Amino acid sequence: MTHEINAPLDRVIWRRDLQQKLNVHSNTVSVWIKEGRLPKPDVNLSNRTKGWKLSTLRAAEVNFE
User: Fold this and answer.
1) Distance (Å, rounded) from C-alpha 31 to C-alpha 27?
2) Which has the least CB within 10 A, 18, 20, 51, 56?
3) Which whole-number Å values give the CA distances from 21 to 4, 18, 65, in the listed order?
4) Residue pLDDT, tens place only, 17-42
5) Which residues pair with 48 in a beta bridge?
6) Which residues on neighbouring strands pair with residue 44, listed in sequence order?
């Protein structure tokens, strides 16, 4: 089995971090997800802790950095 040792990690952006970066309320994030303006979170640590892979946000043209 071959492993990519130098493969870049796809960083997880947690919902709270995204809210702060976009300077919006949690409800706004929920509305944007329902409207399709943001993708649905694709990382679930628990029922209450969700986030996105950075690559997912970039593919949706959400400028996080």
Assistant:
1) 6
2) 20
3) 31, 5, 8
4) 999 999 999 999 999 999 999 999 99
5) none
6) 50
